[in-house]
């Protein structure tokens, strides 16, 4: 470490300090803090989830989730919570904030046995911060039929100077945070505008402002989190060769625990596919990876009596029969023999009956919202299904 200002040793200004232990702000500090937390928690009786480094169990009564130095405690009774807090207080300076109402920018509400999460306060803050740019109030995150490409990026010095004075990346960062936490309905739009953050054009900027206006207009949307049965349902979809610049496809996935969304994603596929079937297969592969991980967490919860009912076998829904037939059939042909072997772990899992692979009508596939712009009617239908009665 460089010698700190005010403590530079005369005559040895070029020398640096050798640290005996990690301090806040260093690259290694997070890792060292995790090992310290792990040592203390396991020492007082906690057991770490094998599939998740930030989750710990205390017997079968309590689950502790940690993010750096923020703890969230789940327990069956308040007496158990108090006991665990008392134990933690002997090792850390613990500040008890009561029931979780706000955590890492997300607000929590409990109503009639259900938990709702939203970011209305944060959205208001973002809207106030960028009100001067007069974003329009919109009813869609991205207009159906609109096309964004590199051809709309600045081509002259004047255009570059104009766009450089606008907070494109700042607004995009705020919207990306919102999309990843509580707003799956804007995931596709955020992904599209993220592709131009290094060199956005005015057309991209105007589209981003419309997206901000949509988020502000729908700030009251709340994700409903409730679970009556331990069953994962995953939806997968792809939009073949939709990128005008490099002809890659867009993939999307939604993971539901019972009827509650717990993970969603829009992603640009890393390879150029040659057919709709192939692009759907790539998207399915990504969705399967998430399904297997969440499955492992649920099984671990059941084995340690965190949940009392045995998880029901997971289901993956795909809206392309050719993809399903390709996965279930070991026969190769000239149209599919080129597909990378690393993707075939899906076929192996299907043969092992690790999950159910089923067809789902394209018009009802909830992952459709993550792969393409929708009409207002289509969007409202999907929002109603994903957000529940918010």
From TrEMBL:
Residue ranges of domain Reverse transcriptase Ty1/copia-type in the record: 1-129
Gene name per UniProt: POLX_1480
Name of the featured protein: Retrovirus-related Pol polyprotein from transposon TNT 1-94
InterPro entries per the UniProt record, alphabetical: DNA/RNA_pol_sf (IPR043502), RVT_2 (IPR013103)
Pfam families assigned to the protein according to its UniProt record, in alphabetical order: RVT_2
Any single biological process term in GO: DNA biosynthetic process
Organism of derivation: Araneus ventricosus
């Amino acid at each position: 470490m460089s010698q700190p200002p005010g403590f530079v040793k005369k005559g040895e200004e070029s020398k640096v300090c050798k640290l005996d232990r990690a301090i806040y702000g260093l690259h290694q500090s997070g890792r060292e803090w995790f090992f310290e937390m792990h040592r203390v928690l396991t020492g007082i009786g906690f057991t770490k989830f094998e599939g998740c480094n930030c989750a710990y169990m205390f017997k079968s009564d309590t689950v502790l989730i940690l993010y750096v130095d923020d703890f969230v405690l789940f327990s069956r009774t308040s007496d158990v919570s108090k006991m665990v807090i008392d134990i933690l207080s002997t090792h850390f300076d613990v500040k008890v904030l009561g029931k979780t109402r706000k955590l890492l920018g997300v607000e929590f509400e409990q109503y009639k046995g259900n938990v709702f999460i939203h970011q209305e306060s944060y959205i208001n803050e973002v809207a106030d911060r960028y009100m001067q740019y007069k974003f329009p109030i919109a009813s869609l995150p991205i207009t159906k039929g609109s096309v964004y490409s590199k051809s709309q990026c600045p081509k002259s010095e004047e255009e570059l100077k104009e766009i450089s004075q606008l907070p494109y990346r700042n607004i995009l960062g705020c919207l990306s945070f919102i999309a990843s936490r509580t707003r799956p309905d804007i995931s596709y739009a955020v992904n599209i505008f993220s592709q131009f953050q290094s060199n956005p054009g005015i057309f991209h900027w105007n589209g981003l402002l419309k997206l901000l206006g949509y988020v502000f207009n729908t700030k009251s949307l709340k994700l409903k989190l409730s679970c009556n049965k331990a069953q994962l349902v995953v939806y997968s979809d792809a939009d073949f060769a939709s990128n005008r610049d490099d002809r890659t496809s867009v993939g999307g996935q939604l993971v539901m625990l019972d009827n509650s969304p717990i993970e969603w994603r829009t992603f640009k596929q890393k390879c150029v596919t040659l057919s709709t079937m192939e692009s759907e297969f790539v998207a399915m592969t990504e969705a399967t990876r998430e399904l297997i991980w969440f499955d492992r967490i649920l099984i671990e919860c059941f084995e340690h009596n965190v949940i009392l009912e045995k998880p029901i076998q997971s289901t993956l829904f795909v809206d392309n029969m050719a993809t399903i037939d390709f996965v279930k059939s070991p026969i190769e042909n000239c149209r599919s023999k080129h597909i990378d072997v690393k993707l075939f772990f899906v076929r192996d899992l299907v043969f092992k009956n690790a999950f159910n692979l089923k067809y789902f009508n394209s018009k009802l596939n909830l992952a459709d919202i993550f792969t393409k712009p929708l009409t207002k009617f289509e969007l409202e239908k999907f929002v109603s299904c994903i957000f529940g009665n918010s």
